[in-house]
Amino acid sequence: MEKEEFDIIKIKLSLIVYNCLYSNKLLFRTDRDLAVHNESSLASELGVRKATVTDLLYCKSLPSTKTIFLILNAFKISFSDFAKMFDKINDKEAIDHIKNISHKMDVLKNL
Question: How much is the pTM?
Fold first, then answer.
């Protein structure tokens, strides 16, 4: 695989995690029992450092297969649903996400 293909994979994974966190953060307003609702709670649920989650969200690293499965478990997403989400993201959407990642993360933190 070329570096560009790995970059698109990183961006798509980041976008999926971002969207899940965004949805959960909105739900957390009415459901305080929701375990995963921000970077810190996701890191805690995964048993990794917050920096690991931050690197994933900012497309700085490609998570291991184990971490991907832990993320799916944390968000209660089946692998088949994850695959569908991944396939739905086109390259243009991925590129738009990476161009606006700093702004999008600020929005997420300020919800």
Answer: 0.88
